[in-house]
Amino acid sequence: MEKRRTGTYRICSTAPEPFKAYIPYPLPPDPPLQLDEVDFDLMERANRALGRLDGITAVLPDTSLFLYLYVRKEALLSSQIEGTRSSFSDLLLFESNEAPGVPLDDVREVSNYVAAIHHGLERLREGFPLSLRLLREIHEILLAHGRGSEQAPGEFRRSQNWLGGTRPGNAVFVPPPPEEVMPCMGALELFLHDEPVRMPVLIKAAFAHVQFETIHPFLDGNGRLGRLLITLLLCAEEALSQPLLYLSLYFKTHRTEYYEWLQRVRLHGDWEGWLRFFLEGVLHTSKQAVTAARNILELFDESQRRIETLGRSTGSALRVHGHLTRHPLTSIANTSEALHLAPNTVNVAFHNLEQLGLVQEVTGRKRNRIFLYSSYLHILNEGAEPLPR
Questions:
Q1: Is 287 part of any domain?
Q2: 359: which of 35, 143, 249, 307 is 20 to 30 A away, CA to CA?
Q3: Three-class SS of residue 361?
Q4: pLDDT of 231-268, one tens digit each?
C-alpha cells in the first residue's frame, strides 16, 4: 500500500534541544480508505457479533448485574495496560471496604475508571453530546484520586508531553505542541459529530481512538480515556445499549501489536491495517463476552439447583447466593448488612454453600472471614490477571 500522510511535523525548540512534534491532519483520512471484499466481510461479521452481544441484554434476568461486573472488567483491563497490578479480587475487596493486597493507588485507579464510565454513560443518557466538555468531565473523575491526581485533571495540557524516552528529544513519539491541542481536538469533535462526513460506527470508533491517542491531549490518563472513548461512542451511536464490550481485553492480550499499529498509522498512514486489527478485536471480544454471559447463566442455574437440595435452609442460602451474584467476594458482615439478615443466619448459609462446593473461605481466619464464589470469579477473571512485570 502506498504511504499515506496522516499529519505533519513541527520543529520545536522550547526545550534544551530541538525536537519534532507530530500534528495529525483532521479525520477522515485522505485519500479515503481502500477496502476490499475481505475487509467488508470482516466488518459485517464484527457488526453481527456486536449485535448479538447487544441482544443478550434482552434475555438476561438482571442486566444491571452483568453491567456492574462488565464495567469493572473493562476498567481493570484498561488500567492493567497502563501498568497497574490490580486483580478482580483486589477491586472487589476495595469496594467492599476490605483491605486489598496491592498498593491502594492501583485499586483507586481502577475504581476511578469505573466512576468515569458511569458518569459518561449517564450524561449520554441525559442527552448530553459526546463532546470535548464531556471528555474533560470524564477525565477529571478518572484522575480524581491516586496517581495522576496532580496532573491537571479535566484540563487539556498546556505543556509538551511525549511517549517513550526520557525527553522529547529522544522520545519514540511526540504529540502536538500544547498550542495545537485545542485545534486538533476541535477537529476530532467535529468528526465525532459526523462532520465533514458520516462514517459507519465501527470505522468511526477505530479512527477516533487512534486520533485521540495521537493528540494525547492530557498530561496523564490518555490511554484509559482513549479506550473509554470507544465504548462511549458505541453507546452514543446506539450500536450498544449497554457497555458490555470490554475491548481492552483484546488490546491487553495483543499489547505490543496494539502499540505498533498506533505508531504505524502515524508513520505510514496504514488506516486499513489498523481497522482490520480493530475489527478483529471487536469480533473476538464480542464472541467472548457472549460466551461468558451464557456460562454465567448456566452456573447460576446449576448453583440454584444444588441449593434447593438443602431443605429448610434453602431460603436463606438462596438469598446469600443472590448477593454473591453481585458481590462474588464478600464477608459475613457485608452480606448481613446488605440482606438485613442476622449474622448467624448468614454464617450458616455460607457454611451450607461451602459444603456444596459453591464458595470457599479465602482468609483462613475464624473471624472476619471472606468468602469467594470461585466458579463465578473464574469466568469473570478470564484475561484479567495482572500482566507479568
A1: yes
A2: 249
A3: strand
A4: 999 999 999 988 888 888 899 889 999 999 999 999 99
